[in-house]
Amino acid sequence: MFQDIPVTVTFVLAAVVAWVAYFIYRLANEEIKIRRYGGHAPSMQKWWDPLGASFIYGLTSHSLRDETLEFFHDQFCLSSHGRKRPYNYEVRLCGTRLIFTADPENVKAMLSTQFNDYGKGEKMRQDWHDLLGESILTADGQSWQKSRQIVRTYFTKQRISDLECFERHMQRLLPMLSEGGAVDVKDLLSRFALDASAEFTFGIDINSLHEPKTEFAKAFETIRATQALIERAGAFNFLVRRGEFRRQVKVAKDFIAHYVQEALALSPEDLQERDKKDKDYTFLHACLTSIRDSTRLIDEILTVVTAGRDTAAQTIALCLFELSRYPEYVIDMRREIEEHVGFDRPPTYAELRSLKLVHNALNETLRLYPSVPFNARTALRDTSLPRGGGPQGEDPIGVPEGGYVVWSTHVMHLSPELHPPESESFPPAHLWRPHRWDDWYPDNWSYLPFNAGPRICVGQQFAITEMSYVVVRILQQYSRIELKMREPQETPKTHKWVRRGDGPELAEKFAQRSPQMATEITMAPRFGIQLAFHE
Ligand code: HEM
């Protein structure tokens, strides 16, 4: 009978059988390792959907409506039902197992106690390679340690307390806020942060505040949108068209290359002199002491500019948005600023640090709107996560080498289990109420806007200084911020939100929030934030 089957069909059948056998072998091998190191988290796989198509469809359709965050909150609520330790689940997408967690113990393991077991992994390096090459943000192991050492040296207190750079750009921004009626602070602050970041990093005044159409500033817009698509498309990201993206990455890199070449031409004596005088000495110059390869220098610079732009800009924009809805707090903050600094001169670094209400407002903004709402690590060896397995979720989860774990800072920041019970001094967690920080500070591992552990955001202090400086300078000049867009809608969307059996209506509450938030590389308002500033 077999002699009637053509050779090609036999060959195809044999290949299919071999692939299935290999797939089963891989699964069995993986299962043995999972059991050796722990167990499984609750599965969100439907029995009729072994490839996880419904999960992929759910995620994609929610993403297209800017409801990615709601999708993940929903999945956590569904998977947690009735378990003592909620907020862990897993799903298998096209054969690859993904673990999702919002359990502080698991996050602590990945970022600190089992730091060497987890890293960015090959997949992330490939996804970001066109844009960032092998830089601090994507590297692991010794390569990361080397980058971290260089970058950290530059971000010393002495450098970040130099507020002149911010003031120069502030002098351009402040008049633009009162140009009559509503202004889009999302856009203005992105441009401000790009200008400040470029000056700090490689000493160039891009002035995108006044000239938003410069090639470098424009390139960043295309780059951000496509890189987000590459990230989100996961295993299918080879389908993303990258022609224009690569052209714009080249524009940005060529722009930086010019300054890198100039810096490379400086003699060691020149560099030392600049360092000593602390004049015209930038992050690029600091890198030159250990890196002489121009490609690597460009990658490190582009990384710091990329990492520091939207994160800080959107946090300030969202803080101003919330302040426009909470005028009593603006009055309190202005009183504090008047007492510590006055309204006639810029604050010093020490004064900035003493402004508790300003820091409370920023902490609260980063709690509700963490710029990096989701993050991921790959297991670099066979390992485990301490919690989420077993019937109550209290046993370890086994994670074989190559396993992918996604955690959600955003879910942790809103989780009722991780906050004190609601009271007058602790209003519901979904509300922006900076007064809650007067005598409360969350546990280290449940409030993580900058991550924690050895890989904590290296620009954290720079960002806090920049953000508080901008907020103070604005409130020194303007006494009232008016919301010039639709008020957030308070009607709950109850149709599909699921409540945990014994928990509050976390997802439902989250769904009431606005403005519409896009989760791209970072989380940011999808549309502009229109505000008017009154003296
Ligand atoms: C509100 C502002 C900011 C937030 C919320 C933020 C958040 C984060 C987070 C969560 C990470 C960890 C990413 C990961 O390991 O997967 C990170 C890393 C990093 N951030 Fe920030 N960031 C902010 C501002 C900045 C600024 C202003 C800079 C630079 C000027 C910066 C530079 C970096 C760099 C270089 C890393 C990589 C550190 C490493 O892998 O060792 N960030 N940031």
Integer-rounded radius of gyration: 25 Å
In order across it, which strands form the biggest sheet?
1-2-8-5-3
Number of strands: 12
Counted by DSSP, the helix tally is 20
Low-confidence stretches: 491-509
Give the % helix. 40-55%
**Main sheet summary:** 5 strands, mixed
Calculate the terminal CA-CA distance, rounded to whole Å.
91 Å
Q: How does the overall form come out from the CA principal axes?
A: globular
- Estimate what percentage of residues fall within beta strands: 5-15%
Class from secondary-structure proportions: alpha+beta
The chain-level mean pLDDT equals 86
The ligands bound in this entry are: protoporphyrin IX containing FE
Keywords: Heme, Iron, Membrane, Metal-binding, Monooxygenase, Oxidoreductase, Transmembrane, Transmembrane helix
Protein name: Cytochrome P450
Organism: Phyllosticta citribraziliensis
Family: Belongs to the cytochrome P450 family.
Description:
- With 535 residues, this protein is an alpha+beta fold.
- It has 20 helices and twelve strands.
- The strands form four sheets. It has a five-stranded mixed β-sheet, with helices on both faces.
- A hairpin with a 2-residue loop joins strand 1 and strand 2.
- Helix 14 packs across helix 17.
- The protein is globular, with a radius of gyration of 25 Å.
- The termini are far apart.
- About 4% of the residues have low confidence.
- Bound molecules: protoporphyrin IX containing FE (HEM).
- The site of protoporphyrin IX containing FE (HEM) has 24 residues, from helix 6, helix 14 and helix 19.
Summarize the structure.
By secondary structure, the chain is α+β, with helices and mostly antiparallel strands.
